[in-house]
Structures are given as structure tokens and as C-alpha cells.
Amino acid sequence: MYRKLFLVFQKHHALYVNSVSDAGFLAARTQRIQLIPQRNRALQEGYTRFYASSASTLPKPPPLPALGTPEETALARAWIDKFRRETIPKGAVELSFSRSSGPGGQNVNKVNTKATIRCPLNSAWIPMWAREGLKKDPHYVANTHSLLLTSTVHRSQSQNVNDCLSKLHTLILTTASRSIKNEATPEQKKRVEGLIKADNARMRAEKAYRSEVKRARGGGRGDW
């Protein structure tokens, strides 16, 4: 009798375990099926991605609102030389993606291959003396006080992101370099000195000629 009861209990326990396992499998499968449309929806709709900030790796410019002295110019030139060798990391900007428009491959108009970066103009790694010039650039957005650049030239997100970062690097480097006055070479200085001497000699010759003309006119009146 006890053996029969044990066999009945074992049978019902096995059925219960199997039912629980099947229920767990079905729940996991259902959850996975529900997540797939959500993931596809995220790929189809624009979204923003934030990275851990790594802007601290960029060289910090000297706090100069303007370049008025040779010392300030030298500091700015040293920063430009360092910044030229750097690349802007993803953590220094805000990234967003959306679907590209226009002709392309199968995925161009279906997934978010268009990359957009936004960079606040008051970022610590952007030189102060270049910010007024950056405000005049078409990429400047006044209501957010930031620089906005996009790229759709490639079919992948990563390549378009790198293209945006390269554009931003070139923009900041070019604008910051405009305030740097290039020093004249020794040959240029010598040529300028020669032109100044020649101009002074010409002015002295003209002055002497006018004096001679006046003197000659004065002497002529006395003969009458």
C-alpha cells in the first residue's frame, strides 16, 4: 500500500516539475519574442547614445579669451600643436542616430546609419579664444549653445560617427588657428626692411626735388 502511494506521489511530482519547466520555457520564449519588436523599433526610430566621458584625455587649452601678447600666442600655438595630434573621443560629445534618406543599400533607409553629434561650446577642451569664431560657423546652434554635425556618407554607424568627430576636430583646429599670427621668416623680414629703406629713399628724393624747384622759382623772380 505504501509503495502504491509512493508511486502515485512520484508520478504527480514528475508531472508538476515538467509543467513548471514547460511554463518557464514558454515564458522565456514569449519574453524573447516580445523583445525582438522592441529592439527593431529602437533601430527604426532615432535614439541617443551616451558614452562615459573621456574628454579629459584631450589637452586642456590655456584660459585665454583673446591672444594679445607674444606670450599668449606662444601658449596658444603650443596647445594647437598638441591638439592637432589628438582625436576627439566619443565621450566628449553626445551621439544620436536616425535613418538616412536618399539612395543607398538595403539597410541605409531601414536602420539608423545617420550619425549626429552635439558638442557644447563651453566644453573645457574648446579654447576660449576660438568660441566667438565658432559662433559664426553654420554648425553652431544658438538655442543650445552647441555645435551640431551630421554624417551619412557611410553605410555604418561607426564610420559616420568617426566622420563627424573628424569634422569637429578640423572645425575647432581651423578656428583656433585663425587667431594665431604667423611670424615672418628672416627672408621676409629682410625683404620688408629693404622695401622700407627704398620707400624712405624715394620720399627723401621727392622732398629734395620739391625743394630744388621752389629754390629755382625763387631765384628766377629776382632776375626780373
TrEMBL record:
According to its UniProt entry, the protein's GO biological process terms are: mitochondrial translational termination
Prokaryotic-type class I peptide chain release factors domain mapped to chain residues: 87-217
Query: Which Pfam families is this protein grouped with?
Result: RF-1
GO cellular component terms, semicolon-separated: mitochondrial large ribosomal subunit
Tell me where on the tree of life, at the top rank, the source sits. Answer: Eukaryota
GO function term, MF aspect, one: peptidyl-tRNA hydrolase activity
What is this protein identified as? Prokaryotic-type class I peptide chain release factors domain-containing protein
